[in-house]
Design a protein that fits this description.
This protein has 224 residues and is an alpha/beta fold. It has 8 helices and 12 strands. It has a 5-stranded parallel beta sheet, sandwiched between helices. Strands 6-7-8-9 form a 4-stranded antiparallel beta sheet, with helices on one face.
Length: 224
């Protein structure tokens, strides 16, 4: 079951319809009050939450979700207004798994939802908080990465890319699989997005970045 919290009835109904058409069960809510009542009765697989809501806004609801032992592990995708950079950063800092910006395409939304669900299921099987490979250490609880003891500042996508590689050492990850898992879409072309992020990661990680190896014509792997 996926909960969609959205006050615009047209968007809400379209999202619920699209989700149900692609094999999910879905339920829509106009505001936080309705959503919290339903949440007390059922725990969804994922929550899609608009930030701008009547009454209690999405950021406040997200804080509640992440402060409760019962709901903190439910993946949340925030929906933000175009250009609302502060809202995106705030949501991610509070524990949101991803965000989409209005207006968004329904198929992009479905791809993002599937990617977040895949990641959450994998992480549920791997409860470790610290992942280490040579000079690089990742604290998944603090969302912090160090290389040779120095904290490295990464964007969300760089962090997710590094985590994917570190959790699969010595395994070749194709560009297409990285695109689908991290960016949430799976179309031909645009694999250069991965290359650009890998290049930046290598630079930021310094000596540790040398562990990311290019497998020509295929993708990348993280050397143990």
């Amino acid at each position: 079951m996926i909960f969609c919290v959205e006050d615009d009835s047209n968007i809400r109904e379209l999202v619920v319809y699209t989700l149900e058409s692609t094999g999910f069960q879905a339920c829509g809510f106009e505001d936080g009050q309705e959503f919290l009542k339903a949440l007390a009765l059922e725990t969804p697989e994922l929550i899609l939450m608009d930030i701008m809501l009547p009454g209690e806004d999405g950021i406040s609801l997200l804080k509640k979700l992440k402060s409760s032992a019962k709901t903190r592990e439910i993946p949340v995708i925030m929906v933000t207004a175009k250009g609302a950079e502060y809202d995106k950063v705030k949501g991610l800092d509070l524990g949101a798994d991803d965000y989409v910006t209005k207006p968004f395409g329904m198929m992009e939304l479905i791809s993002r939802i599937k990617a977040v669900l895949r990641r959450s299921k994998k992480s549920g099987n791997e409860p470790q908080d610290i992942i280490s490979l040579g000079e690089i250490e990742m604290d998944t609880k603090k969302h912090e990465v160090t290389s040779t003891g120095e904290v490295v500042s990464l964007t969300l996508k760089e962090y997710e890319l590094l985590k994917r590689l570190m959790k699969n050492p010595n395994i070749v990850m194709t560009r297409d699989s990285l695109l689908e898992d991290i960016w949430g879409y799976d179309f031909d072309g645009e694999t250069r997005t991965v290359d650009v992020h890998v290049r930046t990661l290598r630079q930021k990680l310094g000596v540790g970045g040398e562990r990311i190896e290019t497998v020509r014509g295929v993708g990348y792997r993280m050397r143990k």
